[in-house]
Amino acid sequence: MSDGAISQDEIDALLSGVDMGGLSSAGLSSSKQSSQKLNTETLLEFMTEEAEALKATLDAMTGASFSVGAPTVEQVTKEQVLRKIPEMAVGVTADFSEGLSGDHVFVLAPEFAQKIAGLVNKEEDPELSEMSLSVVSEIISQYVGSQITKLSQTGFFPGLANSPPEAVHVPKAMLRYPSGEFILVSHPVSGEGSVFTLWELIAKDASSQIITALGGNPIQAAPAQNASNMAAMGQGMPGMDQMQAMPQMGMGQMAMPQMGGGANFNAPNVQSLQYPQLQTGVSSMEQGNIGLIMDVYMEMTVELGRTKKQIKEILGMGEGTIIELDKLAGEPVDILVNHKPIAKGEVVVIDENFGVRVTEILSPIERMSDLH
Question: Which of 80, 165, 253, 277 lies in disulfide reach of 249, CB 3.0 to 4.6 Å?
Answer without folding.
Answer: 253
